[in-house]
Design a protein that fits this description.
The complex is a heterotrimer. Chain A is mainly α. Chain A has a single domain, classed as ABC transporter involved in vitamin B12 uptake, BtuC (Orthogonal Bundle). Helices cover 71% and strands 0% of the residues of chain A. Chain B starts with 11 loop residues before the first helix and ends in an 8-residue tail after the last helix. Chain B folds into two domains: 100 residues, 3-Layer(aba) Sandwich (Rossmann fold); 252 residues, 3-Layer(aba) Sandwich (Rossmann fold). In chain B, the strands form four sheets. A six-stranded mixed beta sheet of chain B has the order 10-11-12-7-13-14, with helices on both faces. In chain B, strands 6-5-8-9 form a four-stranded antiparallel beta sheet, covered by helices on one side. Chain B contains 13 helices and 14 strands. By secondary structure, chain B is of the alpha/beta class. In chain B, helix 9 packs across helix 10 and helix 10 runs parallel beside helix 11. The two termini of chain C are 26 Å apart. Chain C contains 13 helices and two strands. Helix content of chain C is 70%, strand content 3%. The longest helix of chain C is centred in the middle third of the chain and has 30 residues. In chain C, helix 1 crosses helix 2 and helix 12 packs antiparallel against helix 13. The chains are: A mainly alpha, B alpha/beta, C mainly alpha. Chains in contact: A-C, B-C. The interface between A and C is large, with 55 and 53 residues.
């Protein structure tokens, strides 16, 4: 039986990392940077949060104090933002200041980020020399997980809309703010002009490098929160290597699906999240083989969307014109 | 101006108006213009100059960069001359003249005349009938254009930027899809070949040697990152044995072009993007001429070139004309057109506004024809 | 004169660079990267860097068997890198090599399983060759077609095709599982060795190495001396120029991607028929992504790619050895690889651009003519 009321919340939980990732990457791409390192950034965002929470829990065990809600949330959050920021700075330094090829830099960043995530995930215990059997941050994660108190009392409405950890709502709010800033503010206008035609923006006095740096680093920080949400909320504080999988790439695909509009992403990511888990809900009996085919769905849908948007070919729906290209003033 | 109109939907002079509005909106006190009249008709240029004079009287400082002597004389109060990145001198416009300024620009005395021998034994070579072309956005760019280009003659094409010149040349060269109409190549003995519907390769296979020097030199006519020899090979790479390319012949061609046209380059193996504008154009034109074409199409052949290179190009074109090539010369500098072309065809909004004798017309008449079909009834 | 408005650091593009200066700069970057890696390793694990490098060396050259394994891994990585190179020269970002290889694997395995009772061994092998070539070519053709026709973004399309290929392989792994319920295919035709590619000279990896060596030379000749190779270069450098001289860009895109996919298919054939004799979703081992780096680092030159694929494989195996020896996580290799890549990517800047300090006269900057 297909239970929509229980399906939707699960789909939403899947989609929040995608939403964070695609909003972050949309901002980055609007500035003309194609950051294929987002999957790596999301891993780093997740593991940084884990490290922060782990060290906090260790310090509590050492001092014997009780866990307080605010630091339990703030420390991993700050750690995650810091980790993602560093990744963003690496990318920007290579592609904006050193004008390196963006595709290769992004892929190197993904290799690096996934490596960092898996390495620390596996070795944190050994490295910090502590005595726990595995990294299970259930205490910290409970704070992330805590839903609004009255949600359970509101029946299906509560279950579909109100039963999530606070980061989920943060994702939606950030996406809406990002979309608003892009469309309706001067800063957003400047950013879009940097992405479309850096030469024009430059001659109008807009600092191309600064906008690219800020947009990319901000984008990475937002995307990193997706990794944090995944570990802390969805996975209840348990880090398993490679569990995050290829969601980072789906986030990049989502950017194109939403035509670089984060507000569309709010809805579209639910669709993607649903497709990702659909294979668990299809009653195909015992046929495990066919289940593998259902796992293809998100990717097939992405391809269909890619083809359809390229066929329609309206100029406003094109990617930012200078996407993927470095800017060198003397070559204007 | 419609504030909601998208930039890509505007004409070039509308775009320029937007740029000026943008500058005024931001309250600029200093205005720097880089070759602003390159894309305007004489009448539009006059309007622009009036706006600039008003702004000057308002107390704004205006710097206008131009290579057109008559603009300097009519508009400026003072003129500074630069040559090869060095500041040469600064004069009061009222106290100098075009010849002196040109000499300062080049460094030595320069002949400012272009030769124009009469066409000899002109035969019809390209006949264009009712050519109708749309661009990729579906906008009508050429509407029922008909004319004939003769061998041994230079046919100039004038028109405001974007009125269809690019589409005209590209359609003849086989690079642009055509909605309606025909372009016939006429051999000496009268046989006709239809060029529409064929790409450059098929045209060459038919035995028609058609050379096209496009407006975008490094982006279309040449491969910027390849060296001279590889660029020479662009037209001839299919001539190698079996599946392999023959690199020696293009190398010799490159050496010839460099020595005959005096191209300044460190070596044949230098990427062409490292050459200066004039030398790039010499390489491009040199390659096209090496084919010994019977038709030579050129778009803005001297745009952005220094005086010396420009006159080299005019000379090359005249030599082709003397050799019996049908030359079609699209240009924006009306002064040059009036001195170089035998006949001038004026396009206006994709239609033929008129075809006049180059020796008997002047800039004013051309300017009128560029904005109105037939040029209106004013003197 | 000291101009206040002149920036502190002024960057200008370099003119021509002697080829050896470029390689010196890259070498310097590599050395610097190794130093940083040593630092990072020591900081996180407290181990002596020299010890670490010795272990890395042992990981690749420690024994004759290890040398063979190293050569084999280099060959397989090189094969996939050769496959993606013509596409990259055309500025078609084919990151779907993983999927194209898996398609080849699937085709080869299918022949081995479905035809095992129907045809003699040599016929099965012929079918495998043809099937894997076609399968890889098809996997490359699909994104190329859409790019040529509607300018669909090839980076994402090829990426998605990877996952579709993986799931197809997963599907067949269940369908053909042996024993039942294990979800794995296991060694195919273990007793009869039907469809197993011949072993040359008693060394089971020699066939792969020879095939890839041949492909390497062939690709070099193809890209630099053939008309196809010239067309690919022109299309990659300037699509407008290609059209201007009558090159049919659409046809070139499709033709090149078919070639690219087909070579990946060969890689798949070698993996299934010669190396592993089985089919799993991870058979391609991530080579599809690493190949991008290998090809780019070698500036899309097949001969240099021998070096870069050796370098990356050496690093990978070395890092695995370190992880085993000091019970560290396997992912350590990725971190080191990432750092080294960052340095080499960054070094490109110093090759293409020159930095001027304010106040210093530009030292003999070559005048552009």
């Amino acid at each position: 039986m297909f239970d929509i009321v229980s399906f939707i919340p699960r789909a939403v939980v899947q989609d929040i990392p995608l939403l964070f990732g695609s909003t972050g990457e949309s901002l980055t791409e609007k500035s003309g940077n194609l950051n294929l390192g987002i999957p790596g950034v999301m891993y780093v965002g997740g593991i940084s949060g884990v490290i922060g929470a782990f060290l906090y829990e260790q310090s509590l065990t050492a001092s014997g104090a009780a866990m307080k809600a605010f630091p339990a949330v703030a420390i991993p959050l700050c750690a995650s933002l810091l980790g993602s920021l560093i990744m963003g700075l690496i990318y920007c330094f290579l592609t904006v200041t050193l004008r390196a090829n963006q595709n290769v830099t992004g892929l190197a960043l993904t290799t690096f980020g996934v490596g960092i995530g898996n390495f620390f995930g596996g070795s944190l215990i050994k490295l910090s020399g502590s005595d726990v059997p595995s990294i299970a941050l259930s205490a910290t994660s409970a704070h992330f997980h805590r839903a609004l108190p009255f949600a359970a009392k509101l029946g299906w409405f509560g279950q579909i809309f109100l039963s999530y950890g606070f980061l989920a709502y943060v994702a939606v709010i950030v996406s809406l703010i990002a979309a608003y800033v892009l469309r309706h503010t001067r800063v957003g206008l400047h950013l879009r002009s940097v992405g479309e035609s850096p030469a024009t923006a430059d001659s109008a006095g807009i600092s191309v490098s600064r906008y690219k740096y800020v947009a990319t680093c901000l984008g990475c920080m937002i995307a990193g929160l997706g990794g944090l949400y995944y570990v802390m909320d969805y996975a209840s504080g348990v880090w398993s290597n490679n569990a995050f999988g290829d969601r980072g790439w789906l986030a990049i695909a989502l950017v194109i699906f939403t035509i670089w509009r984060p507000n569309v992403g709010v809805g579209a990511s639910v669709l993607f999240g649903g497709l990702y888990i659909l294979h668990m809900y299809i009653p195909s009996g015992m046929n495990l083989a066919v289940k593998e085919l259902y796992k293809m769905l998100p990717y097939v849908v992405t391809i269909i969307v890619l083809v359809l948007t390229s066929m329609r070919n309206k100029r406003e729906n094109h990617p930012p014109a200078s996407l993927g290209l470095p800017y060198f003033r003397e070559e204007r | 101006m419609d504030p909601n109109q998208k930039i890509y939907d505007m004409s070039v002079s509308q775009k320029q108006t937007v740029e000026i509005i943008k500058v005024l909106y931001r309250g600029a006190d200093i205005l720097i213009l880089d070759e602003p009249t390159a894309v305007l008709t004489p009448q539009e240029a006059d309007k622009l100059f009036n706006v600039l004079r008003n702004m000057r009287d308002d107390g704004k400082a205006i710097v206008i960069i131009t290579h057109k002597m008559h603009e300097v004389e009519s508009l400026s109060d003072r003129v500074a001359v630069l040559r090869q990145g060095r500041y040469i001198g600064d004069l009061r416009t009222a106290e100098t003249d075009a010849q002196e300024m040109t000499n300062m620009m080049v460094g030595h005395a320069v002949e400012l005349n272009i030769d124009r021998p009469d066409p000899v034994n002109a035969k019809p070579r390209i006949e264009v009938k009712d050519l109708t072309v749309r661009n990729e956005d579906g906008i009508l760019k050429l509407d029922g254009v008909s004319f004939t280009a003769y061998s041994g003659e230079i046919l100039g094409i004038a028109g405001i930027s974007g009125c269809g010149q690019k589409e005209l040349l590209e359609s003849i060269a086989g690079l642009h899809p055509v909605e309606r109409g025909s372009v016939s190549y006429i051999e000496d003995d009268g046989t006709r070949e239809e060029l529409i519907g064929k790409d450059p390769l098929k045209i060459a296979d038919m035995g028609v040697v058609l050379s096209f020097v496009p407006e975008d030199r490094l982006g279309m006519g040449l491969v910027a990152n390849m060296n001279l020899a590889d660029n020479m090979m662009l037209r001839s790479f299919r001539h190698g044995r079996f599946v392999f390319t023959d690199r020696r012949t293009p190398y010799h061609v490159a050496e010839n072009v460099v020595s005959e046209l005096d191209v300044a380059t460190p070596s044949i193996a230098t990427p062409v993007r490292r050459l200066s504008g004039g030398n790039v154009q010499k390489v491009l034109v040199g390659r096209e001429i090496t084919q010994a074409p019977s038709v030579l199409l050129t778009a803005y052949a001297v745009r952005g070139l220094d005086i010396n290179s420009s006159y080299t190009i005019y000379d090359l074109i005249n030599r082709q004309k003397a050799a019996g090539v049908a030359v079609v010369y699209v240009g924006e500098d009306l002064d040059v057109l009036v001195e170089l072309a035998d006949r001038i065809l004026v396009l206006c909004g994709g239609k033929v506004s008129g075809i006049v004798d180059g020796r008997r017309t002047d800039k004013r008449e051309l300017g009128m024809m560029m904005t109105q079909i037939g040029g209106g009834r004013h003197a | 004169m000291h101009n206040k408005r002149e920036p502190l650091l002024h960057i200008s593009k370099r003119g021509a660079v002697k080829w050896y200066s470029a390689w010196l700069i890259r070498l310097a970057a590599l050395v610097l990267a190794m130093l940083v890696c040593a630092l990072v390793t020591t900081l996180t694990t407290g181990l002596n860097p020299l010890q670490i490098y010795a272990t890395m060396w042992k990981g690749s050259f420690g024994s004759p068997r290890k040398i063979w394994v190293l050569s084999h891994d280099v060959a397989m990585l090189l094969c996939v890198s050769l496959a993606v190179t013509p596409a990259f020269r055309m500025k078609f970002w084919n990151i779907g090599a993983e999927g194209q290889t898996l398609a080849g694997c699937l085709a080869a395995a299918s022949c081995m399983i479905l035809l095992r009772n129907a045809l003699p061994n040599w016929a099965i092998i012929c079918c495998m060759v043809v099937a894997s070539l076609l399968a890889g070519a098809l996997w490359g053709l699909i994104p190329a077609f859409f790019k040529a026709r509607w300018n669909t973004n090839e980076t994402l399309f090829t990426l998605m095709m990877n996952y579709i290929a993986t799931q197809l392989v997963a599907f067949f792994c269940v369908v053909w599982e042996s024993p039942k319920g294990s979800g794995q295919i296991g060694i195919i035709n273990q007793q009869s060795e039907l469809g197993w590619l011949p072993v040359i000279g008693g060394q089971r990896y020699l066939l792969n190495i020879l095939v890839v060596a041949f492909l390497c030379v062939a690709m070099y000749i193809y890209l630099n001396y053939s008309k196809h190779g010239y067309e690919i270069s022109v299309v990659g450098e300037s699509e407008r120029t290609a059209r201007y001289v009558g090159i049919k860009v659409d046809r070139i895109i499709i033709r090149t991607m078919v070639l690219s996919g087909a070579i990946c298919g060969i890689a798949g054939l070698l993996l299934v028929g010669s190396t592993d004799h089985t089919l799993t979703t991870t058979l391609a081992g991530g080579n599809g992504f690493t190949a991008v780096m290998v090809s780019w680092l070698a500036k899309f030159n097949p001969i240099w790619m021998i070096l870069t694929s050796f370098l990356i494989t050496f690093l990978g195996r070395g890092a695995s050895e370190i992880s085993k020896a000091f019970s560290l996580n396997q992912s350590f290799a990725d971190i080191l690889t990432g750092i080294i890549l960052f340095f080499i990517i960054g070094s490109e800047f110093f090759i293409s651009y020159r930095v001027h300090l304010r106040g210093l006269a530009g030292k003999g900057a070559k005048q552009d003519v």
